[in-house]
Amino acid sequence: MECSRTAIGLKRRRFYGLITILFVLTSSSGTKAADNIIMGMAGLNFSFLPFQIAMEKRFYEKYDLSVKPVLMRAQAAIPALVSGDVDYDTHFGSLVRGAVSGLPLRVIFSTAEKQMFSLVVQPEIKSAENLKGKIIAISSFGGTQHLVTAGTLRAVGIDPDREIKMINVGNEAVRVEQLRSKQIHAAMINPPMSVMMKKEGFGLLLHAADYLDLPLTGLGATTKKLKENPDQAKRVVRALNESLQFIRANRKETIAIFARWLKIDTEIAADTYDVAVKVLSADGTATDKAIVASIEEAKDTGKIKGNFTPRDVSDFSLVRAILTESKQKK
Known about the structure:
By secondary structure, the protein is an alpha/beta fold. It folds into two domains: 35-114 and 215-329, Periplasmic binding protein-like II (D-Maltodextrin-Binding Protein, domain 2, 3-Layer(aba) Sandwich), CATH 3.40.190.10; 118-210, D-Maltodextrin-Binding Protein, domain 2, CATH 3.40.190. The protein has 14 helices and ten strands. α6 links the parallel β6 (135-138) and β7. The longest helix is centred in the N-terminal third of the chain and has 27 residues, at 2-28.
């Protein structure tokens, strides 16, 4: 009888011990599994720094997100976004062009509401007037960089169709090489390369941000994603918003991360920060004026007719909700 009671006691202790273990394991994994997200990236420069900061400072992780950034061309990224193979995308101009073309896309976050391009020129060019008759290189006709170049030139009184020769040479690396070899006289270049070119003796004659309200970088998603998983989209936006605030509030650490990320000299990273931080979005939204400018660019590029409002291509409701929540906590 005693042996039987002992056996029963042992079984009970084992049972309750197992229950305790299961409880501890469940409690220790109380945080839900992170959402796996694929994010299409349009490039690697300062305007994309908020996305890198979110990785390095673990802002994504803070909001239960596991983000895999994938460098992609817009021609591949937009179809992948629509099909669901990519969750979010950063090709701002292409997102807007897709939306006005009828694709179910919306820009939901802006990291830079103005272009960061500078017109890098040969040392002997000292004024806009000196550009007349000169060769200016672009990446491709009809693209954002072409329209930014043309718009900036018009703003300073230069007719891009008649008073200069514009040629298509390809990406930034090619434009930089052709400047160095004096095959061209000028080209729009993004930081940090524009800052590096200045240190080599080239001039930074014009800054696109001084003349155009055209958003540069942001984040977009499908309307299906926003409808079916608004919680995830809000967490992504929240992480990026924290990145923007971190960049503005932590100059020294941001410069160190930027230099390490792009493998550039700390001095170049610092100079780039001081120039580019001025055009970062203050809160993740973009003005209606900036969105309308992006819509007009999209219509011109795609030869699309019709009237579109900012609501047709963007939805900053998640950002605004986050900003309202932050104010209420203060």
